[in-house]
Structure formats: structure tokens, C-alpha cells
Amino acid sequence: MKHSFFEYRGMWLKGNVHSHTTVSDGVCEPARQIRDYRDRGYDFLAVTDHNIMDSFQQELEGICLIPGWERDITYSKTKCVHLVGLSGRPAGEQKAFSMERPDPSEVTVQQLTDSMRADGQFVVLAHPVFSRMEAEEISGLTGYQAIEVFNMGCERICHAGRADVYWDMLLREGRRVLGIACDDTHGKTQKSDRFGGWISVNAREKSGPAIMEAVGDGNFYSTMGPEIYDWGIEDGAIYVCCSPVKEIHFVTYPPRGAAHYAGENMMTGDRYELKGAEAYVRVECVDAFGNTAWTNPAFAEALGGEGTDRG
């Protein structure tokens, strides 16, 4: 019996949940940013300008807008904490508003996180490596539901876009934190910071509330390019089905998991026999160009055989 960790609700939708425009510190006008993502085949986009919540209620056929913003606390020229907040409200119902950048002498990052959660926002810890956060700060902060495992903008600026190690640190502590890949478009890098990181969400319909419902449930994967068609558990083993890749990594804890390589040919799937003590398992698929796709973690109760029956 095969049990998928994806819940197939209706449709796969591609989107970027971290982007900026000229409303804050980006170089693209909002209308152009939205149009460009639509024209590149994106199904949804969140414009997350700094300390400005707006849905940019522009009805462009083919793309759904997710209301969002990025709150930031700055401690020095190199030290900061940024949080992306995504609203589950329909774009047409989200009122635009702005707030001053929090003063670190008056507001803690925990208070900021708590206030965003209290408003019903899905909170993502943004680019912790770029922000120069220490491990104890990431671990000590609670309430965020996801961490940016890949941020294209920060990768293009100073090779600080990956946070895999911090993600695993949180998972090892028992934190049920999801992983997000995104662009964080500012348009000020030598190489483009657009169209390099996104999430693929399985939602019941193409609407903001349905997309954010699926995101909140972890019913998505993150990617720089490779596609993950399915993954789950079958006869005591984790399986994954994907587009052609050169590497597939099963990341687990406390057992050490496994790394598999294709050699001369490409792989479109793989299996990992569970050892029976895994607190979580997640999978990375890496293509011939080094682009990675990440599943979200499956935890111990799912590894016991729970999931979506795929027959």
C-alpha cells in the first residue's frame, strides 16, 4: 500500500511569496512585477513590500495575488531580523495600510512575530543567514511557521540565500517548521534575482484563501527548478518521484539518512528504507545544474503509515 504525503486537493499552482516593488525598495513598479510573473507562468504572487500590507487589487487574468508584507527590525548596518507575513484574506478584502519600522528599543522580534500571528498571518522567517542571525536567536524565536530555506535575492547579493542547516536545527529540536523557496526581488543584483525560487502548492482552487490554506497545511514543495510529482511511504520505505535529477538526498534525524547519485544517467525517483527511529524525513532533489527541490518534512506519526491512500 502506497501512502502519499501530498494531499491531492485539485491543482498544482506555482508562486512566489516574497517580492518587492517601487512601493518600498524594489525597482519594478507593482503592475510590471505582477505582469512579469504572470507572463513567466506563475499562478500566484505575494508583493511583500517593507512594512506595507497591500494586495494591489489588480485583476490580471492568469495570476492570483496574495496580500503580504515584510516586517523588519534593524539593529545595525549588518544585523537585522525580517519576517514575511502572508494574509489568507481574499485580495479584494484586504485593506492597504502601512506601519513604521519597529524600533528595537521598543519592540522585540518576538512581540512582532506574536502580533503578526494574532492578525492571522502566515509568518515566515526570512533569509536568516543574510540577516546575520545566530543559531540561538533562530531557535529562541517562536511562532513563525516557516523558514526561507532558499532566498534567490540574498543568494545573488552575497551567497547568503541557503538556510538548510538552520532548518534542520529547528526540526531536530522538534519544531514543526516548513521550508520556503522564494525570490525576494529587489532588482539590484548583478544577476537577476527573479524567477529562481518558488513553491508549488496543491490547492483546491486558484484563490488566495485556498492557496494559503494549503500552504498552512504544508501541502507544497519548494524548488529552484526540479519538480516533485509525489512522495510518501510504501512498505516501510520512503519513495519520491520527480523530474530528472542527478542527486536525491533523504535527510533524517537521528539516523543519518542517505545520499544517492545518478552516475551517467538521470534519476526520476528513489527509495529510502526507514530505520525505525526517524523523528522526521525530508527529501532534496538536485538537477544537473545544481538546482534543488525540497519536500517539507514528514514527522514520526506519518512515518508510521499515515497519509493519503494512493492505492
Automatic annotation (TrEMBL):
Q: What is this protein called?
A: Polymerase/histidinol phosphatase N-terminal domain-containing protein
Q: Sorted alphabetically, which InterPro entries does this protein's record hold?
A: PHP_domain, Pol/His_phosphatase_N, Pol/histidinol_Pase-like
Q: Any idea where the Polymerase/histidinol phosphatase N-terminal domain is?
A: 15-75
Annotated PANTHER family: EXONUCLEASE, POLYMERASE_HISTIDINOL PHOSPHATASE N-TERMINAL DOMAIN-CONTAINING PROTEIN
One annotated GO molecular function: 5'-3' DNA exonuclease activity
Q: Which organism is it from?
A: Enterocloster lavalensis
Top-rank taxon of the source lineage equals Bacteria
